[in-house]
Amino acid sequence: MTKKNAKAYWKENIKYVLILLVIWFLVSYGAGIIFKEALNEIKVAGFKLGFWFAQQGSMYVFVILIFVYVRLMNKLDKKYGYDE
Amino acid sequence: MTNSIMLVESLGVQNWTYILVGITFALYIGIAIWSRASSTKEFYVAGGGVSPLANGMATAADWMSAASFISMAGIISFAGYDGAVYLMGWTGGYVLLALLLAPYLRKFGKFTVPDFIGDRYYSNTARFVGVICALLVSFTYVAGQMRGVGLVFSRFLEVDINKGVIIGMLIVLFYAVLGGMKGITYTQVAQYCVLIFAFMVPAIFISIQMTGNPVPQLGFGSELADGSGTYLLDKLDGLSTDLGFAEYTEGSKSLIDVFAITLALMVGTAGLPHVIVRFFTVKRVKDARKSAGIALFLIMILYTAAPAVAVFARTNMIETVSNQPYTSVPEWFKKWETTGLIGFYDKNSDGKIQYLSGNAFLKDEHGKFDFKKPDPNVKNELYVDNDIMVLANPEIADLPDWVIALVAAGGLAAALSTAAGLLLVISASVSHDLIKKMMNPNISEKGELIAARLSAVGAVCVAGYFGINPPGFVAATVALAFGLAAASFFPAIILGIFYKRMNKEGAIAGMVVGITSMLLYMIKYKLGWFDEVLPDKSDWWFGISPEGFGTIAMILNFIVSIAIMKFTPPPPQEVQDIVENIRIPSGAGSATH
């Protein structure tokens, strides 16, 4: 039973990690590097958007990603009884 | 009231610096005495009961080095868009830390990173390879910090650089040896406050001056305060192209190199032992996740302000010097000229400063620009060092003396906090991993604590020696410490957690191949020791610079590890049980031997 529990917990954890890492990749390597030129056509105030993602936006998203993970995992820990 | 204002005004930069640096040093020493370590557990992991907030602050200070504080904004201001590799690279790694490493390593509950490598791969050979990697990474990094301490002293207090290094050594020695991780943690909390305040105050002042917006992160995307309706970034793009530089928001590195450097820095961040051990100091697994988030938030405050400072400083700099008569340059220009951070040669004898793209001077035999040898083929007449942007920014913007002094105190806080964290990794690698785990397992608790303190003393002396006699390659290798960490620890730790079947043969081979290929590439393409002259960029593999090669070395490590693992026996059942156990957050207990 506990082993099964642990497996299910691990599976859900991996799912969260993968989703968050995809976002992590898209904002930094996607918006900030690969698609920078295309995004630079769009301007928000004085910022070209690709430049903004590379030097500002990706960092804000990184912080949000970690806190989302903290929340998700705290809930998951409770669901599987691993909370302490 | 009037008297005190007059006193404040007459103090001058020098005295303000003595006062602020003196107060902060007294604070660090006071904290060290209050929090001295009495057991190995306190010495290595601060007793294991640090709150997530305190650990987040300590991690942020530990992380932000002299390079982040002094050099980064300057590098960005010259690199423009390309500076993003440092911004994203040195923050994105925290996402990897929080999601892939910190919680599991905390659950594992050991004192050091080589400890994890040695136990997870059930082999003292693996542990030894881990120790070598930890020492290699930490020593290349720490020498630069001691040099940073010396530089700040010499520039602001007109103390000899070497004396500055020795003062820094004595301070670090005092609180690292006495307090261990416990002393370091709480001094780092104080150092974070000092350095963030010191960075943000001038940034806010200048942002208001230039754009009227008090938030620097928004200010550099705003219109100029002069009422012209022009956006600051558009103006800087224009100024840059007029003078023959690349457009500021475009940059000049190739896409693949930007990609590779960013990834190497991110992965390297997540593999740096002095960052990882910080997560061994909290109580529970959930605290490890949370404190990674807090640490990144606190780091982000400086890292998002740095590109703004870069833009302000670059614009100010160009406007102040470009095509201006040399006789009417402001006082700071002359001051930094005497320190060798600014060099000017009137090539066309028109009495004005032509600041254009290209290197104004030829290099001497040590690879430094020689201000007596102007390059006749380049029209540019001015050399400006990267570091000046943060150090001289308050002077360029004509801010009050106490703000200038604050920058000195902040630079010292940044350099000292990082140096202390690295020294602890070095001393723990020696006293815990080498002496206790490999050479003399029967050593008493008291004996190990003495060994830990002695190795900290030894490490400070070596670091100080490198600070005073910097070998030519230190500056070049600091950035490469990340490549080394990416090539060695990151794959071994990730596979150790997420791949139960990974065995010692695979991990050891992977680490050895990874770190060796990184070292060889670095020696060939960064230091140029294999050839008569440093090979040209066009020889780089796939167009990837030595800074970005950590990405390739990391991939090599993964491939070799997995390939070797396929042909060798799986790890014993008890090791597989350990892996299952670290995936479950509850029952973390406290860090043990």
Automatic annotation (TrEMBL), chain A:
The chain crosses the membrane at residues 16-35, 50-70. Residues 6-82 form the Sodium symporter small subunit domain. It holds the Pfam family DUF4212. The keyword Transferase does not apply. Keywords: Membrane, Transmembrane, Transmembrane helix. It comes from the Bacteria. This is DUF4212 domain-containing protein. It comes from Flavivirga amylovorans. The lineage of its organism: Bacteria, Pseudomonadati, Bacteroidota, Flavobacteriia, Flavobacteriales.
UniProtKB/TrEMBL annotation, chain B:
It is a multi-pass membrane protein. It comes from the Bacteria. It is found in: Membrane. Keywords: Membrane, Transmembrane, Transmembrane helix, Transport. InterPro entries: Na/Glc_symporter_sf, Na/solute_symporter, Na/solute_symporter_VC_2705, Sodium:Solute_Symporter. Its main location: membrane. It holds the Pfam family SSF. The chain crosses the membrane at residues 16-34, 87-105, 126-144, 164-180, 192-210, 258-280, 292-313, 402-428, 449-468, 474-499, 506-523, 543-564. PROSITE patterns: NA_SOLUT_SYMP_3 (PS50283). NCBIfam families: Na_symport_lg. Belongs to the sodium:solute symporter (SSF) (TC 2.A.21) family. This is Sodium:solute symporter family protein.
